[in-house]
Amino acid sequence: MSKSLWYFAAAVTLAAAMMSCGGKGQPSETAPAANTAGKPVDSATAGTVTGSIKLDGTPPRPKNINMAAEPNCSKQHSTPAQTEDVVPGDGGTLQNVVVYLKGDFSQYSFPPMTAPVTIDQKGCQYHPHVLALQTGEPLSVINSDQTTHNIHPVPKDNREWNESQPPGAQPIMQTFARPEVAIPVKCNVHPWMKSYIAVFNNPYFEVTGKDGSFTIKNVPPGTYTVTAWHEDYGSSEQSVTIGPSESKSVTITFKASSAASD
Amino acid sequence: MTPRPHQNVHRFAVFTAACTLLLLIAGALVTSNDAGLSVPDWPLSYGSLAPPLVGGIFYEHGHRVIASFVGLLSIVLAVWLWRVESRRPPAERPAKIWLRWLGVAALGAIVAQGLLGGLTVLFFLPPSVSSAHAALAQLFFATVASIALFTSAWWEKETGFWLRDFRSPSIHTLALATVAAVFVQLILGAAFRHKAFGIIPHLAGAVIVTGLIFWLAGALRHRFPGVPELRFAARGLHILIGVQLLLGAAAWWSRLYAASFPQPIPVMVALTVAHVVMGALVLVGTVLVTLVCYRLVQPAGALVGSPEPRPSAAD
Q: Do B115 and B179 belong together in one domain?
């Protein structure tokens, strides 16, 4: 019996080792974090792209989140916490939209971003709900709640990771090596917690706030595609040409009825 | 009166099977509550044996605790079977010696199952590994249920081979095909749940499995009308597939309904878990019916559907 069991244990261990070698095809983290070989953008001739993101139609009503299973979080909300997938801004605008420029920036180099971008878990929700950063830029994950969270980005092009964070734990520091719009982030302890992280290899991006506006500065002259990405409405684009020291305004409108189903 | 050699081990096998059913419920709760990665580490949970049982951690760690308990039961069952079978008189050994290897196989399955569970956590729920984890759970349950049957008083008492079947396909072929189809269907269901692919293969599988189970149940009823066990088996198969079809439809409706909610809702969780567990019971049901067929029905003989006088246990 013992001999057979040993054979079986060896076979299972071998299978496990083979699977662990194969894994899920995780991208390695050795990809270049940012282009440092080009020239810096000439700020004397650089322009600006401004604008706003509009929402045409009646936005869907947010849904209440049931946090009864997590009293530490529910008591932080005087009214029931609500979903944040579609958050209207002032004057028919839309918040939490990632706006970025598509174009050829290969001839430019951009200084590495060393100050961390912070995402906070507070009241069992992510703050901010959508954030954007550059490749190699540190992401600091903090837990302001008196409960345990796990933070789990589910990227397609970057390395997937999943870390737990008890109350009072040190911030989790992570970086992303590749551009990706956008990485869903979730907490499996509290399944209603969702967030998105957009990663770029240039600094030409912004996330719309309460007024739905954006300002992308220090853009070298050229023709670009202004792309707006929203978690429910997907992407919408407009072309823009920036001359030397020129400022252009762009308005992109999403239709409220065009939300992608889950 | 001398107790049967398998009397207590049979009771223990039934207990292990019941705990395995509980384990299947716990595992289904993990998936339905999207809690599979709420504990990022393995084999410990948050580096300890007693993590904070908040949110999804309750489901994931609870699943691990029950799985560990079933693992312990499997060790006891394998050792017990081995010892009981080793003490049999040499003359009986050729008939039952395989049973101890079935206990070892069950133990091996639960060990492999634990490793698959760990791998699926450490590799962020790859659909292939998660589906394999779900499928092996069903196989383990069927194995333990089979051990319970093999150690039962009924199995000990039956001398076997008193029915004959000339029809084509034979009842054995039909039963085996049904078991295989149910198992493939469970894999398709697990793959759908773990997002390996869509619902269509699982729906197609449901049609095939339903057809085969009705065919098998009809064959049992018509070929062996006077055999209480097989009449009961036919009725049981009808009930199992009927309830399972209803649960499947309800679970699908609940998923569509729950899609607009920010979190898993109780009705969706309950119906989906019930559908998963009933699927396991359908597999076990068809496996046990198949074994009973192999016990009672000889694949060659003179008469179709007319059982010979049932031999007594003393014959």
A: no
pLDDT at B3 over 70: no
- Closest CB to B263: pick one of A9, A23, A66: A66
Q: Do A16 and B37 count as a contact with CB atoms less than 8 A apart?
A: no
Q: Are A189 and A165 in contact (CB under 8 A)?
A: no
Residues 6+ apart with CB under 8 A from A130: A96, A97, A98, A182, A195, A196, A197, A198, A207, A231
Nearest-Cα distance to chain A for B164, in Å, is 38
Question: A164–B41: do the CB atoms touch at under 8 Å?
Answer: yes
- Looking at the structure of chain A, the number of domains it has is 1
User: Is the link from the previous residue into B43 a cis peptide, with omega within 30 of 0?
Assistant: yes
Specify the pairing of strand A47-56 against strand A247-255: parallel
CB-CB under 8 Å, B108 with A63: no
ipTM of predicted assembly, 2 dp: 0.83
CATH number of domain containing B312? 1.20.120
Are A24 and B126 a contacting pair at CB < 8 A? Answer: yes
- Residues A108-137 have pLDDT tens digits of 999 888 899 999 999 999 999 999 999 999
Summarised one tens digit per residue, pLDDT across range B200-257 is: 999 999 999 999 999 999 999 999 988 899 999 999 999 999 999 999 999 999 999 9
- Sign of the four-CA dihedral B167, B171, B176, B182: positive
Would an 8 Å CB–CB cutoff place B5 in contact with chain A? no
| Tokens of residue A182, six digits | 């956008």
Question: Residue B20 and residue A63: Cα distance in Å, rounded?
Answer: 38
- Chain A residues within an 8 Å CB radius of B50: none
Interface of A with B in 177-216 (CB under 8 A): 187-192, 194
* Strand, coil or helix: A192: coil
Domain that holds residue B119: 1-157
